[in-house]
Design goal:
The chain is of the alpha/beta class. It has helices at about 15-35, 45-50, 60-65, 85-95, 185-200, 215-230, 245-250, 265-275, 315-330, 330-350, 360-375, and strands at about 5-10, 35-40, 70-75, 100-105, 125-130, 135-145, 145-155, 160-170, 175-180, 205-210, 235-240, 260, 285-290, 295-300. It is globular, with a radius of gyration of 21 Å. Bound molecules: nicotinamide-adenine-dinucleotide, 3-isopropylmalic acid and manganese (II) ion.
Amino acid sequence: MTKYRIALIPGDGIGPEVIAEGKKVIDIVSEIEDFQVDWVEYPFSADHYLETGELLTEDSLKEMEKMDAIYLGALGDPRVKPGILEKGILLALRFYFDQFVNLRPVRLLKGVECPLKDKKPEDIDFSVVRENTEDFYVGVGGHAGKGKSKDVLEIERNLYNVRFNLDIEVDRDEIAYQLGVLSKKGTERVIRYAFELAKKKNKNRVTSVDKANVLTDIYGFWREIFNEVAGEYPEIETEFNFVDAITMWFIRKPEWYQIIVTPNMFGDIITDLGAMIQGGLGLAPGGNINPSGVSMFEPIHGSAPKYKGKNTANPIATIWAGAMMLEELGEKRAADLVIEAIEGVLREGKVRTRDLGGTSKTSEVGDEIVGKLKGK
Ligand code: NAD
Ligand code: IPM
Ligand code: MN
């Protein structure tokens, strides 16, 4: 029997509640499809940080390197300054494992009411390939006061190390700055992933999203590389959209899109909008993928602290992310069964959380999906 070892990081807020349902579903589908999942749970979260001062540990990262995947709930807590947990745990994992693709399907499942008038499941069905290690997420920046100062900004990545030695001279008030970086290799590999995904899914258009009309250096570079890679795929149509315009087109003509590829920050922003046109954040999954390493799957939503401990959050995004994980592990049939069960439950409409107009609990949605899988 095939065995998988999967790291489980429930995290903060609603994370533990939704991840429990995802785990429940995977445990059942693994019985049905005859494979075994051994879970290794890690405590990394706000609670753990507040108790111990620890974010991630080197030892746990080394352990996870030997695992088949990571399944994560969400991170972020109002008791901790914004960025500490998000950067110290979530982004640190994405970077450490060089998960350079953030794959976010935007798909209106059958049985979900679309907030856009007259749009059907066949109209909202595309994938966003978000670059996941670079851009304004490299985490280098600083502050400088009036007068002369120096700063050294360093980026350490699997692909490269960069150091910026800055001589700063400010003639008036304090300033803050943040640098965005794209590398040729880092850009090329994610764009190539998008074209390969188009081929695999029989799609014939790849849309690049950027802001090359203003941030000309960084996104002009992105465009050059996009064109180079596109040249290798003459059968696939290409286009450039500016990020502001695509937010309008997502609402106006979502059926146009097939595969979208975009730098990190714009990918973050447009996929929350993508989530809304597929029915809400409670229904939007994502995978942080390193095609030759350890990938990590999670809902795209956050820890929604207001709903923590209430058992009311929608677990479907997380369960669907679990299905993406199964597919990436090579268990395509199990992944399809999970999606079918999700759609079955949504179509019946009896068991729904509050975000979808129902009154069911988080755990009842998980139980109902499990019931569907068992053929009840
Ligand atoms: P959020 O995604 O946590 O929540 C925004 C709103 O979306 C919620 O108030 C709720 O109305 C709705 N929502 C989200 N998930 C839902 C679900 N499963 N079911 C029903 N409704 C749901 O975004 P936020 O409020 O901006 O951020 C809260 C915290 O989460 C912050 O600390 C942020 O940094 C962090 N965050 C983490 C991740 C992640 O771990 N991947 C992603 C986004 C935000
Ligand atoms: C997401 C989140 C994260 C991101 C934050 C919490 C670091 O918003 O997964 O979409 O910006 O990538
Ligand atoms: Mn986000």
